[in-house]
Recover the amino acids of this structure.
RNA sequence: GCCCCGUUCGUCUAGAGGCCUAGGACGCCAGGUUCUCAUCCUGGUAACACGGGUUCGAAUCCCGUACGGGGUGCCA
């Protein structure tokens, strides 16, 4: 009805953590809204009072904020609009487009199971469809619980145009009457969804493919409510776990919080998710948010479901880390450093270490861990067993350490303490034994560049560590 | 069971009838650069699910089969 700006909504159910698939739905809605200058609305679909939690409502908003998917309107809570839905349901009953149903959930379920067993299609059998006024009154007098069921058309087809898939249609006879108000008096998704999209003048509905079949029911409801116009629908492919099937906990992290805590950047997560089912029309893979917005085309979204690949996400996160300014990266790593070595953190050294780690890390957590040796007291430095084994096997390891200790003791101090000369003088190729020094100084045979590391630690601390390794030999 | 949607390298994808002896990216493998590791560079591996049509010509269009996913809830 409004022919003004496009209006889109992300409408999660607050029944748990925000799944990575839901995040992509939010992202595509947001991207399209921003791309066309539309309005992005957050609507919480909490009609299932029993399963919805305030905690989840808060979490959804936190996660969206963290990702930078800011909404323009809302959050609207459906639980605050029950009156509107119930009034509409009452109207539908008056008009005979819906009817009171006295079957209990358990009864319907049982009948469905019997039908399945006997090879008949399941679905509501229409038992309460044609009750007379008297029959209804009698049942109510018996104190039976009442739900309201929508009467679906008996024949004909339902169809709509999907922006991604084209025409989607189905035979009405395969869709049975469905509940729109539970016997506890609360409205069901289909009803609330239909009414809200109407009231909020939603123009584009982008959601997961799992909702494609429910579209027909929502459309029938809209029609019954007096609206024959349809929003533009686009059903996006689902995200599968490695090996196919639902992406679930057994595949690793499936909630955004887990990725955030593992040191992933919002920009990388968004970039990766955007590319799962869509791509710009050139070969670019690393895209900033503003580039995603500029390039995003709903018409280019794929039709087939995609498998989530943690490896590629990790690579992409590394790319985003490398693309950051040092100042941004420093503040991004800071919280991770604080939780690890809060009081020992010294800022100039931290910044220098971040700078060194930037080109060799894929997550923020990795960066924080790579520099841990800098903020660990000398006597608490943990030496990685494998690295130590490797050190022990080096011929003349003791001599090498002695020589380097002597060098570090007497050399002129600078920001690059390079012991290669004295090692070479021993007749040993420095490259082959450098891991000895890494292990002694950093606790691992691999890590931040050694010359910088010794310099950052300072002469005294470096000597303590080298001597500790020497005497442990 | 019935209904809906889908099917290009292991994975994400390009491909809208001839430009495809199918391109890019991740991964993997092999080299190179480098103070370690990583980054980076070079090269390699590897795919149009199958069967019928339509057409001079099909990865691209149609039909069927197989396979995968979703729905069939008083969940959303």
């Amino acid at each position: 009805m409004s022919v003004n700006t496009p209006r889109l909504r992300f409408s999660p159910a607050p029944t748990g953590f925000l799944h990575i698939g839901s995040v992509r739905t939010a992202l595509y809605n947001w991207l399209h809204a921003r791309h066309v200058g539309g309005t992005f609305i957050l609507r919480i679909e909490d009609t299932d009072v029993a399963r919805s939690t305030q905690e989840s409502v808060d979490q959804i908003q936190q996660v969206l904020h963290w990702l930078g998917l800011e909404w323009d309107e809302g959050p609207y809570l459906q639980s605050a609009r029950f009156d509107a839905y119930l009034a509409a349901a009452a109207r539908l009953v008056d008009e005979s487009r819906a009817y009171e149903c006295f079957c209990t959930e358990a009864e319907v379920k049982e009948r469905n199971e019997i039908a399945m067993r006997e090879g008949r299609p399941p679905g509501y059998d229409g038992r309460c469809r044609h009750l007379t006024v008297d029959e209804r009154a009698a049942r109510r007098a018996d104190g039976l619980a009442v739900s309201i069921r929508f009467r679906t058309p008996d024949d004909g087809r339902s169809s709509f145009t999907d922006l991604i898939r084209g025409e989607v249609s189905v035979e009405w006879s395969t869709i049975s009457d469905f509940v729109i108000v539970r016997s506890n008096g609360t409205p069901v998704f289909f009803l609330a969804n239909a009414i809200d999209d109407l009231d909020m003048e939603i123009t584009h509905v982008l959601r997961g493919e799992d909702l494609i079949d429910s579209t027909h029911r929502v459309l029938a409801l809209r029609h019954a409510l007096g609206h024959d116009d349809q929003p533009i629908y686009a059903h996006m492919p689902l995200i599968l776990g490695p090996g196919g099937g639902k992406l679930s906990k057994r595949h690793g992290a499936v909630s955004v919080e887990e990725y955030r805590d593992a040191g992933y950047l919002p920009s990388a997560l968004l970039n990766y998710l955007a590319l799962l089912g869509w791509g710009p029309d050139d070969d670019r893979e690393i895209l900033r948010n503003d580039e995603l917005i500029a390039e995003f085309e709903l018409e280019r979204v794929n039709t087939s479901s995609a498998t989530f690949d943690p490896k590629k996400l990790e690579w992409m996160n590394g790319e985003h880390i490398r693309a950051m300014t040092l100042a941004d990266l420093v503040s991004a790593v800071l919280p991770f450093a604080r939780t690890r070595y809060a009081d020992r953190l010294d800022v100039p050294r931290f910044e220098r270490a971040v700078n060194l780690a930037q080109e060799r890390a894929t997550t923020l957590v990795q960066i924080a861990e790579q520099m841990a040796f800098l903020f660990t007291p000398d006597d608490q430095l943990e030496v990685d067993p494998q690295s130590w084994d490797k050190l022990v096997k080096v011929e003349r390891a003791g001599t090498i350490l002695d020589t380097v200790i002597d060098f570090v003791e007497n050399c002129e101090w600078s920001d690059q303490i390079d012991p290669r000369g004295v090692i070479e003088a021993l007749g040993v190729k420095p490259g082959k034994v450098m891991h000895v020094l890494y292990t002694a100084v950093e606790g691992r045979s691999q890590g931040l560049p050694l010359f910088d590391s010794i310099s950052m630690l300072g002469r005294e601390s470096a000597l303590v560590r080298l001597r500790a390794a020497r005497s442990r030999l």
Remarks:
- The first strand of chain A starts at residue 7 and ends at 10.
- Residues 11 and 85 of chain A are 17 Å apart (CA to CA).
